[in-house]
Specification:
alpha/beta; Aldehyde Dehydrogenase, Chain A, domain 1; Aldehyde Dehydrogenase, Chain A, domain 2; seven-stranded mixed β-sheet; 17 helices; 42% helix; globular; binds nicotinamide-adenine-dinucleotide
């Protein structure tokens, strides 16, 4: 048996008992360390063969209330934990996650359709998030001394309170740790509402946290729909802030829902990110990066480079080379280690992505590769990696977030037009610039309306750096100390030296 077939078989063998166990009983919420039985449930399906993986508790406003109460109670002691003890516990969670890396990888692949080659690293990335914020926990409360002639003015930070974390279905395990680890490190307690299309590893995460010794009520997980459990979480008076990752329209809804209780919000939303390739760039590296940033993770990636702006003088040849590559991308079973693109998460999302093939044709773009559904193993929600050429920036395929393995190519002439096209979208998450002219790279970076810009690179994350978008792509930043600024309140303590004059009245 070839090595890849053997790995597929061993992944399937590993998956089988895990899925059999999931079928035994519905996935329950975890509230205050307990797992209450739910009155109603919903199903989560595998996008690979459409089979039911598990039934899942359908959270209600009542469940959210219980979880908020549990988080409020736990906050009283968790906020005061010795930070070194908290650091050690968060490292223990990371150890536990690493010990379950294979289980997380196969379950995540099966629940979301994400290729195993990427998901095999999901647990390690998740553990790394815990370790990074664990090490920062002891300094989370640090502040500044801003002396004035008569006072020592000292700032410190305190955890804001119980917070809500609402996550989407793309790379859900890694992404949830990215939001939850800093909240816990800051001393907040959490109510997590995972996406309804990918609940399996969210349940695993809270179980692993408890296995590592996280006290009851510090992390609570309530499953369910956005308009049910999600909405109730954003409206709950005891929840002080909402860390949200998802669509821009949902961000607007959450802002409305949270207005009454004056919620602090942090939004990581959609993107339509440009990769801008000038003729003077290292075109081999630019090609690899452009292909990777849209066709990895099924294109279901907020930072994907979904618009390729390419200098007109090289547009034809560069597009042809991309089309050739795209035609060679291996679509297949997500647990096959050679698969590069797996099935999309859900029938509804698959339908949305496929609808853009007709939109492109109607609007007059050319389909240079793909452009249809794909008949993949298991009969699931596969699409062919797709390339649109001959597009204009005002077409829907250049303006709307498709969130699949679909790239739109638009030629430009000169720096000014590149910048104008790059910025002429409602989003502003990332931008990727390819040129060997340093001055031009800096001018472009300065002018790009985006929260994160990479020059001559694909998205390579460094955890201390800020992560977030502008315009319809988000509000606020994650990463490093930025995360603590969200999950903590800055407090001023001003100490008089006894030298200043106090005005006398009466
Ligand atoms: P979504 O907005 O549909 O759902 C995200 C979460 O919000 C889910 O848990 C959902 O149940 C919940 N939700 C839905 N309606 C709600 C409401 N009214 N109140 C409270 N919660 C509600 O997004 P999705 O389809 O799951 O995820 C894909 C989107 O996420 C894409 O737009 C993608 O760009 C974005 N995303 C952004 C980043 C980033 O860092 N900027 C990262 C990953 C994903």
């Amino acid at each position: 048996m070839a090595k890849t077939e053997a790995t597929l078989k061993s992944n399937l063998d590993r998956l089988e008992p895990l899925v059999a166990k999931l079928r035994e009983a519905p996935i329950r919420h975890v509230i205050g360390g307990e797992r209450p039985a739910a009155a109603e449930t919903f199903e989560t399906h595998s996008p690979t063969d459409k089979s039911v993986i598990a039934r899942v508790a359908l959270g209600t406003a009542g469940d959210i209330d219980k979880a908020a109460q549990a988080a409020t109670k736990a906050f009283k002691s968790w906020a005061k934990w010795d930070p070194d003890k908290r650091r050690a516990l968060l490292h223990k969670i990371a150890d536990t996650i690493e010990a379950h890396a294979e289980e997380i990888a196969v379950l995540e692949s099966w629940d979301t359709g994400q290729p195993y080659r990427f998901m095999s690293k999901a647990a390690l990335r998740g553990a790394e998030n815990f370790r990074f914020f664990a090490d920062r926990a002891p300094a989370a409360r640090d502040g500044l001394n801003l002396p004035s002639p008569d006072h020592w003015n000292i700032t410190t930070r305190v955890p804001i309170g119980p917070v809500g974390v609402i996550t989407p279905w793309n790379t859900p395990f890694m992404l949830s740790t990215w939001k939850i680890a800093p909240a816990l490190a800051a001393g907040c307690t959490v109510v997590h509402k995972p996406a309804e299309w990918s609940p399996v590893t969210a349940d695993l995460l809270v179980r692993l946290c408890h296995e590592a010794g996280l006290p009851e009520g510090v992390l609570n997980t309530v499953h369910g729909l956005g308009e049910g459990a999600g909405k109730a979480l954003t409206e709950h008076p005891q929840i002080k802030a909402i860390g949200f990752v998802g669509e821009s329209a949902t961000g607007s809804a959450i802002m409305r829902q949270g207005a009454e209780t004056l919620k602090r919000v942090h939004f990581e939303l959609g993107g339509k990110n440009p990769v801008i390739v000038f003729a003077d760039a290292d075109l081999e590296r630019a090609l690899d990066a452009a292909v990777f940033m849209i066709y990895s993770l099924n294109g279901e990636r907020c930072t994907s480079s979904s618009r390729l702006l390419v200098e007109a003088s090289i547009a034809e040849e560069f597009s042809a080379r991309i089309a050739e590559r795209v035609g060679r991308i291996k679509v297949g079973h997500p647990l096959d280690p050679t698969t590069e693109v797996g099935p999309l998460i859900h029938e509804r999302h698959w339908g949305k992505v496929c609808s853009y093939f007709d939109v492109a044709r109607t609007d007059g773009a050319r389909i240079a590769a793909g452009g249809s559904a794909h008949d993949g193993p298991g009969g699931g929600w596969y699409v062919k990696p797709t390339l649109f050429t001959g597009a204009r920036n005002d077409m829907r395929i250049a303006q709307e977030e498709i969130f699949g393995p679909v790239l739109t190519v638009i030629p430009f002439k000169g720096e000014a037009e590149a910048l104008e096209l790059a910025n002429a979208v409602r989003y502003g998450l990332t931008g990727y610039i390819w040129t060997n002219d340093a001055g031009r790279a800096l001018r472009m970076a300065d002018g790009l309306e985006a929260g994160m810009i990479w020059i001559n690179s694909e998205n390579v994350r460094h955890l201390p750096t800020p992560f977030g978008g502008v315009k319809a792509s988000g509000i606020g930043r994650d990463g490093g100390d930025y995360s603590f600024d969200f999950y903590m309140e800055t407090k001023l303590v001003s100490l008089a030296k006894g030298t200043h004059k106090i005005p006398k009245l009466g």
